[in-house]
Amino acid sequence: MASQREVRTRIASFRNIQKITRAMEAVSAARLRRAEQRIAALRPYADAIRRMTRQAARDAGAEASRLELLAHRENESKVGILLVTADRGLAGAFNSQIIRAGLRLGAETAADGKTPVWFASGRRGVSSLTFRGNALDGAYTGFTDRPSYADARRISDDLVTAFVDGRLDRVEVLYNGYISPLTQRVTRETLLPIAEATVLGGEEEEESDEQSSGPRPLVEYEPDAEELLRVLLPDYIEISLYRALLESTASEHGARMTAMRSASENAGELIEDLALEMNRARQAEITQEIMEVVAGAESLV
What we know:
Elements: H1 4-60, E1 78-84, H2 94-111, E2 115-121, H3 123-131, E3 136-140, H4 149-164, E4 170-180, E5 183-192, H5 196-200, H6 203-213, H7 225-300
Parallel strand pairs: 1-2, 1-4, 2-3
Antiparallel strand pairs: 4-5
Helix pairs in contact: 1-7, 4-7
């Protein structure tokens, strides 16, 4: 059995760990609230961009299919895979589940005879892919705690340029979709080419637009709808990436808050167990001392 001094040292160590985990939980909770507010603020702008893009695509008609960002390539050879992870760990399975999903997608892509081209946001994703020997065509770090629109634009510019130049035939993005502080869902989206169904909208979406807004207004374009769509599509991609970054940030803080709360509770349980162990050790020492006193007294009789 360990001595009282050893047990006290272990208890003090676990109490220090508990203080750290509680502080990290509080910090993550505060950052999570801000991340949720940023997501809520983005939604109206993202919805407006989507409505404008959808209307311009409808009015452009067959001309919209000629745009490079909407063009589906029959013979795909290179598929870009963007993993959205965090710069830091201590967030449970937040990073590992994205990395595992990305590696599975890469293996499936290679099995189909296509070449996966890797991109990663966040130091965890960059280091994990590099450690496994996967060369990165794009590594973006240093902003996962609070991503800005400029960060999304930088990533978007690289991906769009590679797609337009023919270095990529398709781009997939994997990120943690935020549902609640306890739940994050691995989300996979095809970023490029933009699906026509996403831009044009389905029948149900069109019916809902007509019911909510009544007759569709007549819009005049200058110079024309195709040119406007050519400008809106890159913005649409940037908004999609920015939303993915914000969702990932909220998921990271939620996952870290949950992980630190669990760590604090586990530390508390260990402290209680060690306190019982220390009491047993103290009782054993007292019993031993009493037995020594009794034995000494008997020897004098």
